[in-house]
Amino acid sequence: MNAKGDLIARAITLGLGTPVFEVTPQGPPHEPLFRVTVRVGGEVLGQGGEGRSKRDAERMAAESALKALDDPAPTRADDPQPQVTGRWPIYSVVLEAALETAAEFADDDATLDDVRAQAARLYRDLLTELGHGPEAEE
User: Fold this and answer.
1) Mean of pLDDT values over 25-33
2) Region labeled Disordered — which residues (predicted)?
3) How does DSSP classify residue 87?
Protein backbone atom coordinates (compact mmCIF):
# COMPACT_ATOMS: atom_id res chain seq x y z
CA MET A 1 0.00 0.00 0.00
CA ASN A 2 1.28 3.47 -0.92
CA ALA A 3 -0.72 5.52 1.58
CA LYS A 4 0.62 8.89 0.46
CA GLY A 5 -0.09 8.23 -3.22
CA ASP A 6 -3.49 6.75 -2.41
CA LEU A 7 -4.39 9.81 -0.33
CA ILE A 8 -3.34 12.23 -3.07
CA ALA A 9 -5.35 10.31 -5.67
CA ARG A 10 -8.45 10.05 -3.48
CA ALA A 11 -8.39 13.73 -2.43
CA ILE A 12 -8.09 14.88 -6.03
CA THR A 13 -10.81 12.47 -7.17
CA LEU A 14 -13.13 13.78 -4.46
CA GLY A 15 -12.44 17.36 -5.57
CA LEU A 16 -10.72 18.27 -2.32
CA GLY A 17 -7.47 19.41 -3.92
CA THR A 18 -3.95 18.15 -3.41
CA PRO A 19 -3.03 17.27 0.18
CA VAL A 20 -0.20 19.25 1.77
CA PHE A 21 2.15 17.38 4.11
CA GLU A 22 3.51 19.73 6.79
CA VAL A 23 6.68 18.27 8.30
CA THR A 24 8.02 19.44 11.65
CA PRO A 25 11.43 18.00 12.60
CA GLN A 26 12.26 17.74 16.30
CA GLY A 27 15.12 16.48 18.38
CA PRO A 28 18.86 16.47 17.78
CA PRO A 29 20.25 15.64 14.30
CA HIS A 30 21.53 12.25 15.46
CA GLU A 31 18.08 11.26 16.79
CA PRO A 32 15.42 13.14 14.83
CA LEU A 33 11.69 12.80 15.30
CA PHE A 34 9.37 13.99 12.53
CA ARG A 35 5.77 15.03 13.06
CA VAL A 36 3.59 15.38 9.98
CA THR A 37 0.20 17.01 9.60
CA VAL A 38 -1.90 16.56 6.46
CA ARG A 39 -3.97 19.50 5.24
CA VAL A 40 -6.54 19.31 2.47
CA GLY A 41 -8.17 22.56 1.42
CA GLY A 42 -6.54 24.24 4.41
CA GLU A 43 -8.19 21.87 6.90
CA VAL A 44 -6.31 19.27 8.96
CA LEU A 45 -7.29 15.75 7.92
CA GLY A 46 -6.65 12.87 10.33
CA GLN A 47 -4.49 12.74 13.44
CA GLY A 48 -1.15 13.21 11.71
CA GLY A 49 1.85 10.96 11.99
CA GLU A 50 5.13 10.66 13.83
CA GLY A 51 8.27 8.73 13.06
CA ARG A 52 12.06 8.57 13.13
CA SER A 53 12.16 9.22 9.40
CA LYS A 54 10.26 11.78 7.36
CA ARG A 55 9.01 9.01 5.09
CA ASP A 56 7.57 6.96 7.97
CA ALA A 57 5.90 10.02 9.50
CA GLU A 58 4.34 10.97 6.14
CA ARG A 59 3.11 7.40 5.64
CA MET A 60 1.50 7.34 9.09
CA ALA A 61 -0.10 10.76 8.51
CA ALA A 62 -1.43 9.64 5.12
CA GLU A 63 -2.90 6.46 6.65
CA SER A 64 -4.61 8.56 9.32
CA ALA A 65 -5.99 10.95 6.68
CA LEU A 66 -7.28 8.04 4.58
CA LYS A 67 -9.02 6.66 7.63
CA ALA A 68 -10.58 10.08 8.25
CA LEU A 69 -11.90 10.06 4.67
CA ASP A 70 -13.29 6.55 5.16
CA ASP A 71 -14.90 7.38 8.53
CA PRO A 72 -15.99 11.02 8.33
CA ALA A 73 -17.00 12.67 11.56
CA PRO A 74 -20.71 13.13 12.09
CA THR A 75 -22.03 16.37 10.65
CA ARG A 76 -22.39 19.12 13.24
CA ALA A 77 -25.31 21.52 13.21
CA ASP A 78 -22.95 24.42 12.39
CA ASP A 79 -21.18 22.46 9.62
CA PRO A 80 -22.38 23.94 6.32
CA GLN A 81 -21.27 20.97 4.18
CA PRO A 82 -22.45 17.44 4.97
CA GLN A 83 -20.07 14.61 4.17
CA VAL A 84 -20.91 13.12 0.79
CA THR A 85 -19.46 10.02 -0.79
CA GLY A 86 -19.56 8.81 -4.35
CA ARG A 87 -18.38 10.10 -7.71
CA TRP A 88 -19.56 13.54 -8.80
CA PRO A 89 -20.74 13.85 -12.40
CA ILE A 90 -18.47 15.90 -14.64
CA TYR A 91 -19.95 18.76 -16.64
CA SER A 92 -16.91 20.29 -18.32
CA VAL A 93 -18.48 23.68 -19.07
CA VAL A 94 -19.65 24.09 -15.47
CA LEU A 95 -16.29 22.92 -14.12
CA GLU A 96 -14.47 25.36 -16.39
CA ALA A 97 -16.69 28.21 -15.17
CA ALA A 98 -16.05 27.22 -11.54
CA LEU A 99 -12.28 27.29 -12.16
CA GLU A 100 -12.48 30.68 -13.88
CA THR A 101 -14.61 32.10 -11.07
CA ALA A 102 -12.31 30.73 -8.37
CA ALA A 103 -9.27 32.17 -10.16
CA GLU A 104 -10.96 35.55 -10.59
CA PHE A 105 -11.88 35.88 -6.92
CA ALA A 106 -8.72 34.29 -5.46
CA ASP A 107 -6.45 36.35 -3.24
CA ASP A 108 -3.25 37.58 -4.84
CA ASP A 109 -1.20 35.18 -2.70
CA ALA A 110 -3.46 32.16 -3.33
CA THR A 111 -1.75 28.98 -4.50
CA LEU A 112 -2.93 26.80 -7.35
CA ASP A 113 -4.22 24.30 -4.77
CA ASP A 114 -6.22 27.09 -3.09
CA VAL A 115 -7.85 27.97 -6.41
CA ARG A 116 -8.53 24.30 -7.20
CA ALA A 117 -10.09 23.73 -3.77
CA GLN A 118 -12.31 26.79 -4.13
CA ALA A 119 -13.34 25.71 -7.64
CA ALA A 120 -14.23 22.26 -6.31
CA ARG A 121 -16.37 23.82 -3.57
CA LEU A 122 -18.14 26.08 -6.11
CA TYR A 123 -18.73 23.12 -8.44
CA ARG A 124 -19.98 20.88 -5.64
CA ASP A 125 -22.29 23.55 -4.23
CA LEU A 126 -23.78 24.35 -7.64
CA LEU A 127 -24.41 20.71 -8.50
CA THR A 128 -25.90 20.09 -5.06
CA GLU A 129 -28.29 23.02 -5.48
CA LEU A 130 -29.32 21.66 -8.88
CA GLY A 131 -29.86 18.16 -7.49
CA HIS A 132 -26.95 16.60 -9.38
CA GLY A 133 -25.08 15.08 -6.44
CA PRO A 134 -22.62 12.21 -6.53
CA GLU A 135 -23.43 9.03 -8.38
CA ALA A 136 -23.34 5.83 -6.34
CA GLU A 137 -20.13 3.90 -6.87
CA GLU A 138 -20.69 0.42 -8.22
Assistant:
1) 93
2) 45-85
3) B
